[in-house]
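To: structure desk
From: M.T.
Subject: fold request, one chain
Message: Could you run this one when you get a chance? Sequence is below, nothing fancy, just the single chain.
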Amino acid sequence: MADDGDREPTYYVISDLHIGGDEQLEHVEFLEELIAFLEHLEGVDENAELIVNGDAFGLWEFTRIEGIEKFDALVESYPELFAQLRATGESVPITLLPGNHDHDLAAYEEYVERFAEYNVDLIQEESITRPIGGRTIHFEHGMQRDPNNRIEDFGNPYATPLGYYYNTLVTSRAGQLSDRGRYNWMKDVQAVTPTERMPVWLVSKYFYREMNPLLRYSIVPFLLLFNVSAVLAVLAGLDLAGIWSMPIERGTAFLGQFGTAGTALWWFLTVNVAVAGLLLLVGIPLYFIRRDLRKTIDRFGVFETELTVDPNEPYEDAAREVFEERPETAVFCYGHTHRPTMKEVGGGLLVNTGTWLKRLHRRDGIVGLLPPVFYPSFQLCAIRIGLEPGGDTVAVEYERIEKPNPATEELTLTERLLTVGREPDPELPDRAVVDAGIERRTVEQRHEG
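Reply: Done. Structure tokens follow.
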């Protein structure tokens, strides 16, 4: 076998593992898969390097210990993982970049020494580059493109962007309280993106998980029939006003043909109409008040930045800038947004590494006012970047790491019924190649069959 120094490098990239945190956040649902992936890397016949592109650990989510103590907590909680890092690092270099959730890694020199004991090379920089063919790859976590999570003074242990407070006050607190729920679901708060979905997610989990089952199943018919009841409420109003009585008269006559059953249904619909009418009477003015309040807030500029940041545009702009300033760059690889994507930008490839956290896919109710369902799935993956045979092109491809769908265990029967036929099936981006030389910068997408 040829010496690794004589062979072109191949890079494997993962990010956004978010391992660690207070209490229930300590549980890592993909630990078995991660260790198996590291074991696999030990045996690859390549001049390989593993790059962990930020947010490997959830250090922001540790709120009861500080500084290097967090490292001790990680090793104590995940001895098998650190043992495997040490074993894999003996044959494959492992490079670790800080993200925003583990920004502590950039703030304390002791972390460099401690990770080195496990054959992990911690680089306390915002970005790094690696050679590939006649070009280079740019790696960064990506938080610096996000105004809510940008570390203005990178490496300062006291740097606290908005996202820091959200994670210490909301995410960490949820981890501490999660086991008080009926089904230990609050720990999934870190998978809710964008953050504006948090209130809707909480309502959804309360309705399907925490609400007393008798109460839930007693109000479900009213909620399912809300759309019909709202129309009937309008028709009843027209009847009372003497404007149009025909629909109510014919409906009453029709139900009267069915005796007691028709009378029961008539009363049931009457209650639904009354509830729908009240909701309409209250909801219409509240809608206009809410809209006017939002306009007033926008006019005064109370909130200068929105919590939700465009997950694409800032990174596309950043990639164009890097490709223009350093034409030798072939790939701009980042994480942070948890959305595995690959796109040709400015003659190079923009690549996002996705996340190993659970992903929640919103599925709105089919009818009525039922809360949306947040359908869980995993999309574990590693990106492989290497030269194709012949050395003319750099190939970038996603390697899927299989993990069973958790929906059966985590969704109620009601949630599963409401999402039948609408289960998410997230696909990873297709393989792509970019020219390996500096002269030509054309990108060709190659779709696999």
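Reply (cont.): The two ends are 32 Å apart (CA to CA). Let me know if you need anything else for the meeting.
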